[in-house]
Amino acid sequence: MNIYDFAVLDHQNQEVLLKDFQNKVILIVNTAENDPLFPERYEKLTELYQKYHQQGLEIIDIPCQEFTPDDVENIRTAQHVFPKMQISAVNGNYELPLYTFLKTNRGFAGFGNDELAHKMEVLAAHNDPDYKATPDIKWNFTTFIIDRQGDIFARFEPNYSFSDLENIVKMLLASN
């Protein structure tokens, strides 16, 4: 089983079969436009998409309101360059089956050691004191990197380095 076995609904409630993205490098990202990380993260993702889309990069934007619930109107009116899906749950009883699969196969491994990592740890602990023990998505902009075969290559937490992400994207695009 891989991500090609799943479908999601786009922002117009149309089914999107992930098998239609075969032989692409895919970033699956939960976003929220009211998140303080949004302006920088979304701009960088847009740049990455524009730079590598012709070589086979796809970004699937899955808006999520679990961490910043007051941004629903912003999500519906924002301009998007890459495919935007329907607002969806990424944790809990109503999470997308795709996210159940992603989290089961690539659990949470920590935030790292930078300054933002410490802030993310404090925030995650406030929301869930046992956050380290679960594979749940901890915040917006958690990114799953999918290789050309539809397998999960990596999971990046929201404080990831865009240069690290770009290097992995380039490596996966170069492999056939």
UniProtKB/TrEMBL annotation:
Report keywords, A-Z. Oxidoreductase, Peroxidase
- Care to name a GO molecular-function term for this sequence? peroxidase activity
User: What Gene Ontology biological process does one annotation of this record name?
Assistant: cellular response to oxidative stress
Q: Where are the transmembrane segments?
A: none
In which domain of life is the source organism classified? Bacteria
Q: Which family does it belong to?
A: Belongs to the glutathione peroxidase family.
Q: Return the protein name.
A: Glutathione peroxidase
Supply the source organism for this entry: Ligilactobacillus ceti DSM 22408
